Model the fold of this input.
Amino acid sequence: MRQNRWIRALFIGVGLFGLIQLIPYGRPTQNPPVVQEPPWDSPQTRQFFFRVCKDCHSNQTEYPWYAWVAPISWLIARDVQEGRRHFNVSEWHRPQKDADEAAEEYRKGTMPPPLYRWMHPEVNLSAAERRKFLQGLEATFGSSSVEEHSTRVKSVK
Ligand code: HEC
Done:
C-alpha cells in the first residue's frame, strides 16, 4: 500500500516535470545586438568582466544546456533580464546609473550571485586577479565610495 503511494507520487512528479517543459517562458532567446561598450580602462578588465559577469550584464550571454530545462530556465531568464536591466555593458549608449556599484558588489561578494558562482567555478579568480579586477572595475565604472554611503545613511537619520 505504502509502496504504491510512493510510486504514484513518483509518476506525478515525473509527469509534472515533463509538463512544465512545454511552457515556453524562460527559454533562451537570441542575444540582442551589442550597441556600444563602455570605455574600458584596459583590455584585461574587459577580459575579467567577460569571464565573470557577462552572462547577466551584457548582450553576449552564453547559455548552458540546463538553461533549456524548466524550472532552472525560469531562474536564468529572470537573472539575465534583471541583470541587463540594471547594468548592461553592451548598451552603453543609454544611462547605466547602477554601474558605479560594480566594484562594491563584487568586493562584497553579492555579485556574481552565489548560485551562479557555484555552477561556474571558472569565475573564481585568484587573489591577485581579484585585486586587479577590482581596480579595473573602479577605474572603468567609478565607485560609490564608503564615505558617500555613510554620509547618505547619516543624512537620512
Ligand atoms: C547570474 C547572473 C549575474 C551575474 C553573473 C552577475 N550579476 Fe550582477 N546582477 C544580477 C541581477 C539579477 C541583478 C539585479 C538585482 C538583483 O536582482 O539582485 C544584478 C545587479 C547588479 C548591479 C546593480 C546593483 C544595484 O543595486 O542596482 C551591479 C552593479 C552588478 N549586478 C554588477 C555585477 C558584476 C560586477 C558582476 C561580475 C563580477 C555581476 N554583476 C555578475 C545578476 C548577475
Summary: Residues 52-53, 55-57, 79, 82-83, 86-87, 98, 101-102, 105-106, 111-113, 116 surround heme C (CB under 6 Å).
